[in-house]
Design a protein that fits this description.
Largest sheet: 3 strands, antiparallel
Shape: globular
Number of helices: 20
Helix content: over 70%
Order of helices and strands: EHHEEHHHHHHHHHHHHHHHHHH
Radius of gyration: 21 Å
Structural class: mainly alpha
Strand content: under 5%
Length: 497
């Protein structure tokens, strides 16, 4: 069966095609302008995908499908793209952060055209992950995003950039190896890579490996990307040494690929095992929350502080996923999906602002900063909004996601939910400490000539602030879609209970 709408194919391959054009025909400044045009067009396309699905929230929409893409009988792969309520918001998030990343790279002077080439290729690969409905295609896009991120960190990063890039690559490939074993075992057990029918096929198939093993293989692969303790150690190094644009994309959408995989693959295809191992997900989620927050308090580097805070915040995704075992599973899992979207915009804004501050102050060491609000009122306001959203201030998107997770997980895991709530207190502590030390107090004399954000820098900051406050005030614009996208998972879990 062939079906071709074309809009998803355009969303995936336009940035990839644009990156090839930059590599072949363009110079630095032309590449920068071209990247702005392409990412702006991509934002329009992803916004259309989001709105179109919101207006018709029924199953998979905007499907592009070619059944005979790789017509080998023993290894049949389809070209199969589609979006539902789970993927459409994440596609929009990728569109937003792609444009933000280009503006964050405005002042890049070293190998400029290559920088924008890799950024565009990365955006296309990530959208491919969120839209692929053939498991083999999903894996191809999952691997494709490794290449741009590796080069972005290793060439345009700072500090131990080569070490951090290689560590990121090794950890992610290790996770991919676990996932690939699971994918191949599923294919040779069911005869299909079609992710829309695999849940039904798995339930009646004679599996090569036990379902519990397959569940663990996939969940470990995604856990490394999220990342989950103890597979988290690559993240602080990668974030600390990555350029600003790479940090925005890494925190904003690459971590979300892990969470998305847990929903799309592990939870959808193995609901029995999700219930059986929900205690482990809840435990690991709480460890992530408390450990990440505790380590964050000790950090004096702004980027490293935000990186460890991401580990803590991703623990909430696991806790929300573990709520499948309780009476409020819809609430908890919706909160987990919301956390993925809101954390993308909040942490993207944090890394963006810190990157702009670093370009001016030439340091991220918090004790060497102070009083910057007097010289950088716009950037100080940006950091304040992002920080308050990160600690879950009501009226921001961070509050909506975290309170929903707590309400959903409490019926299932009361003790874990209570312990996790203490992580919010720790978050408030390190966020407020960071803002007070960096933005207020006495300013060093050598920072008296620092300047505030320029117009190209204000644009991406404004986009992210609107997203954070907009979802905080009117969360149903996103949450209703997630509820619809999670409906098949919820129904399969309820049938088991």
């Amino acid at each position: 069966m062939n079906e071709f709408n074309g809009i998803l194919t355009l969303a995936v391959f336009m940035p990839i095609a644009a990156s090839i054009l930059i590599a072949l025909f363009m110079t630095g400044k032309i590449a920068r302008g071209f990247a702005v045009i392409v990412t702006l067009a991509e934002l329009i396309i992803t916004s259309y995908i989001f709105i179109a699905y919101k207006n018709n929230p029924d199953g998979y929409q905007m499907v592009d499908r070619i059944s005979e893409w790789i017509p080998v009988d023993s290894f049949r792969v389809e070209y199969f793209l589609g979006v539902d309520g789970l993927s459409a918001p994440l596609v929009l998030l990728t569109g937003i952060l792609g444009l933000v990343a280009v503006f964050a790279s405005w002042n890049v002077t070293e190998r400029t055209k290559e920088h924008f080439m890799w950024l565009l290729a990365l955006q296309g690969a990530v959208i491919g992950v969120f839209t692929a409905l053939d498991f083999f295609m999903f894996f191809l896009f999952w691997e494709l995003e490794l290449i741009p991120m590796f080069f972005l960190i290793s060439i345009w990063g700072s500090g131990r950039k080569e070490y951090s890039a290689m560590k990121f690559l090794i950890f992610t490939i290790l996770g991919s190896a676990f996932m690939l074993i699971g994918i191949l075992a599923l294919y040779f057990s069911t005869g299909t890579f079609d992710m829309t029918i695999l849940p039904e096929k798995i339930s009646g198939a004679d599996l090569i490996l036990p379902a519990s093993i397959l569940f663990m293989l996939t969940i470990v692969g995604f856990a490394i990307k999220l990342p989950v303790f103890p597979f988290h150690t690559w993240l602080p190094d990668a974030h600390t040494d990555a350029p600003t644009a790479a940090s925005v994309m890494l925190a904003g959408v690459l971590l979300k690929m892990g969470g998305y995989g847990m929903f799309r693959v592990s939870s959808t295809m193995f609901p029995d095992q999700l219930l059986d191992f929900s205690w482990l997900l809840a435990l690991l989620g709480v460890i992530n929350i408390i450990y990440g927050a505790a380590i964050t308090i000790r950090q004096t580097d702004l980027k490293r502080l935000i990186a460890y805070s991401s580990i803590s915040h991703m623990g909430f995704v696991l806790l929300g996923l573990a709520s499948a075992n309780g009476e409020a599973s819809t609430l908890g899992m919706t909160g987990a999906a919301l956390q993925m979207f809101t954390h993308g915009t909040i942490t993207g804004l944090l890394f963006l602002t810190v990157g702009f501050i670093y370009e001016r102050a030439h340091t991220r060491h918090i004790p060497d900063l102070g009083g910057l609000s007097g010289r950088m009122p716009f950037l100080a306001t940006s950091l304040l909004i992002a920080g308050l959203a990160s600690l879950g201030l009501p009226g921001t998107s961070g509050f909506v996601a975290e309170i929903t997770i707590f309400l959903g997980s409490f019926p299932a895991w009361k003790i874990f939910a209570i312990i996790a709530a203490s992580g919010v207190v720790l978050t408030a502590g390190y966020i407020l400490w960071m803002i007070q030390r960096a933005m207020f107090g006495e300013r060093p004399a050598h920072h008296d000539k620092l300047t505030d954000a320029s117009l190209p820098e204000m644009i991406p900051i404004a986009i992210l602030i609107v997203s954070i406050v907009g979802v905080g005030i009117y969360p149903s614009i996103i949450s209703d879609m997630f509820v619809k996208g999670l409906e098949p998972i919820i129904l399969s879990i309820e049938a088991l209970n």
